[in-house]
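[Solved] Which block belongs to which protein?

Original post:
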Amino acid sequence: MIIDYLDGAAPADLQADLCIVGAGPAGIAIARAFAGSSITVCLIEGGGLSGEDRSQSLYDGESTGDLPFDAGTSRMRAFGGSCTLWGGGCIPFSDDDLEPRDWVPDSGWPLRFADLAPWYERAREFCRIDAAHGFGPGAFDGPPPRRPLDLDAGELVNFIFARSPITFGEAYRDELQQAPNITVLLHANVMELESDADAKVVTGARIGTIDGRRGRVRARHYVLAAGGIENARILLLSDSVASSGLGNGHDLVGRYFMDHPRGTIGTIRADEPDRVTRPYERSIGKVRAPLSPEIGLSMEAQRRHRTLNARVHPFPVEGHVPQGIRALRDLRASLRPPPRTEATLLEARLCAALQNGPGGDVATMHSGLAINAIRLGLNIGDVVRAVAQKVADRPTVRSDRVELVGFFEQAPHRDSRVTLGTDTDGLGLRRVRVDWRLDDLDRHTWRTMTRIAGDGLAAACDGRFDPAPWTLGEGPPALRGTAHHMGTTRMADDAAHGVVDPQGKVHGMDNLHIAGSSVFPTGGWAFPTFTIVALSLRLAEQLRDLL
């Protein structure tokens, strides 16, 4: 069942076998694994069923690092988590992503692809990816709808990823609501994990609402699945017994914070720029492609140049838009109702902050419906020609140039970290302070990828590549995050090098586990959600044995 903790009729204190904090992809995957079993589960979510400004404000924080970082707009506090806004990209890690690299300090997972493969199989089912799409280390099986470019395999490779057609909160809400052994608690914010006198056993999760309601959830086992930033924050806030926070005996909680820095690395100008962009479009017409290619740096090139992993996506930038096409777009925009609800306005704001393309001005319609209809009628020939282009699988508007956007793996950096600031939120809890740092290996990676991808893709369309000045060291790096928060409770065989063990249990604690990308020791280039789900399903099986 689903209970709103804001409702005064709901019990203040709850008891369960398993308490899961956070109803994003990790928390939902674990809870669903127990649906219909004899094990009782309490799934705690700080937000509501959809976005709310009041709940979202609890995510605000401060930024002190090399790059600006907005903790309030790079994640979403609602049932379904930040994947309420995700694009559905799924791809498995390979052993190249998981093995130690001698040129990357603190790299290496205590797991290999063979350890994750059976859980990737289950993750494919959970993400509702067609079983016909097989996968192997680092890629799904092709072919994608359009053939990707033939690249120099010694430098660049085409990775095939799959698209999940669902958002997890929407897809699994009814199932969790109907499960008799699962209680989903909305608007219940975990304020602290309480422990015994030795800080080895969690004895309760202290919860509260912004309105002042307080209570506890007591369980036999606890899972933090609140995201790459909030997992660390909750551990640091849980300092009543251990002054530095739970699981933090080696001062590792919050350290090694990583994202996938992204930015426009340059421009390609050519007579036929669409030769580069069309194979990598993620939609065919209005339909999202179930498989798509992405251009990545080959492992051979990473070893030779001693770089991190990286990928690049070519985005077309339209040239002159014919009057008829512009009128048709304006007419469609005028027929779409503007976002009005608090949830849709919040989602629009977060989507704008998380935009992965090169950016640019958003066209605003100033004309009325009748004026746009007249403009369309006067220029209907443009639309007829555009339809013919679509039938021939050619772009309806010719591109002026190609913007190359790079997405980069980040080196594990001990001093890139999440800590607690001095400001407090609506619950009276200290907000996060994110010190997001880059190092020389990060800079070497984006310089190398800029040269390799820019020259290689320009040659593919007989064009000219102009690198962005920041990639050449001219001015500060024009980079932003991709909302892939990783590393703050990293996984390792021993407590001196990680917060959790290879099974996801916090070192030195008997009944506390962590799920999500905060346990990633490194991030590769890949979208993290598929691996988050696989690790969560693996943890659910281990918890089933423990319980």
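(Second protein starts here: sequence line, then its structure tokens.)
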Amino acid sequence: MNGLRLGRLGLLLALCFAMLVPAGVYAADSAAPAATTDADTAAKLGLLLGDGNGVNAAYLAISATRIQAAIISLRLQGRLAEAAAYQGTVNFADAGSVGASNRAVLAFLKAHPELGWNGTGGNAFMPLARISSQQLYKVLLEALGYRSGTDFDYAQTETFAAGKGLDQIAGNASITNAHIATALIEALAANASDGMPYMAMLQASGVLPASASLPAGERIRLHRDAKLGTIFTDKAGRTLYFFTKDAPDPNSCTGDCLKSWPIYNGGADLQIPATLNAADFGVLQRTDGTTQTTYKGWPLYYFAKDQKPGDTLGEAVGGVWFAAKPNYAVMLGTSATLGNYLTDAEGRTLYYFDKDTKGKSSCAGDCLANWPAYSASGADLPTGVNAADWGMITRADGSKQSTFKGYPLYYFVKDVKHGNTLGQNVGGVWFVVDPVKFAGTTAPVPKTYHIDIKDYSFGSGPLTVEAGSSIVFTNFDDMKHNAVAVNGAFALPLLAKGESYTITLDKPGTYDYYCEPHKAFMTGQIIVK
């Protein structure tokens, strides 16, 4: 039994890591990052075969498919060679969507419904459809000697897998090659159903050399908390935290603070899931001589009152401690002079422009070169930051910009490191964003104005409006009229009696205009402030 299972897992490893990277891509050197991914570990064990292109973020992001899962299943049952050589002609209707070798596999599955791959209905298999973490964990559990329907119900697959140490990719409706890498390393570290470590069994069978070993150091784990979402824990399941006062000074927690919030030091052998970026992890040399692991520039801590795995008693303590997460859209910094303020996930300060109006940016050209627009890549928010206050606008050039309470967020080009706030009060119009106190800008609120064209006139005197306001021209004369800006900013079509046309002027300035058919005497002026 053990020999059969060993052969199946060896085949599984060879298959799955062949989809990732070739061996030797990750050569250790003095410039190695402060963390090693699960893909790195598999390569060092000689299990990564790759497709000849190496590994990069784009490749690891490729979605895994049903045909990949089916091949894994066949390898686990020792029947892949038989399936690949199958000559049967009866097949699923959509077998033509894959290559010839995989068509043979599909025909074999069609001929052997007892293997559990009966298609998706209507004689279709959907070989290129994405697979979920639940489906992959079912395959891995069976590799470890557990049986669906006997040892666990399929609906409870991920709960059962978590009890066996397989939970890092749980909850994903569509998994990627990076997820596969992490799940396989979990399988290597797990025990089979008979209690024997799989690593030892692989070595005993010769699948891995006797000298091979899994890293014995620390590990960052991804834990799905029912309230907080995905958070970081250490390998024992203890929650890790960020401290907002570390934004301006990463050594802000000292003395009694460290008694309540001990530092986390993952050491030189820190392991991380393949879905994380090793370059995001670093090592802080603290002023007291100790070293501390950082993520995106934020030092990582424990909370002394967290007594058991999964405890998150440190969340939002004092409004300055938050569970570390991989995908914050925004974080908080805290300084003695500015209080709390928004930063990006790396701790870089975010600002608002007091000339902006809700939902609209007034910063373009040279302004935008000095104050780049911020567009969040993550989705998580610190406790206390209202999700309803977080949004996105589309700029005039089509790019996206994140907003808080409807107002666009920016960086300052002179803020070059974690915690800089050099943009505060620049020109009296740029300010950090206190998420509690911020209520909007002081810029005039755009309004709607009307210019009635009557008796061959645009009315008496210039019209003064706020930037972004709408201006509605309506013709009340029997004769057709229009309005054309001298500087080309706008040009209305000829309006018949009763017709209207609306323009919006965003740029402050003076706009002189005229009616083309009656240019000599029909003129007007709009002043945008």
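Accepted answer:
You had them paired correctly. Confirming on the second one: The first strand starts at residue 36 and ends at 37.
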